[in-house]
Design goal:
Blueprint: H1 11-44, H2 61-83, H3 87-106, H4 112-130
Amino acid sequence: MATTTPHRHSAAAEATAGGLTVFAAVLLFIAGVLDFFRGIMAIANDNVFVNTPNYVFKFDLTSWGWIQLILGVIAMGVSAGLLARATWARVVGVGIAGLAIIANFLSMPYYPVWSLILIAMYGFIIWGLCIVHKET
């Protein structure tokens, strides 16, 4: 009769998992800072952004500024939790990155290149947080 033993990760796999978590935490902090400053720009001076009058999802830029600012602050806080290796931070990090992708998609006509850059950054964050199977 065969017995099953728990699956153990090698030291290299555990080091890689820890490195991906740190990578995601640092990238989340940087993206959060960028969203924070983008939010301040939209709140303080709406004429920094391109005006797209015929966009399906038309919103007031000041409102988008507050959304970006709040998401940025939360992202920076979650990145601190990721560096402390808190499990809640990984779950919240994936959620906040997903919300930030949606927010950047909806604000794409106002600042298209920057929105695409942040969408890619948040995509890498989600990948980095989801690829790790075990806390290190």
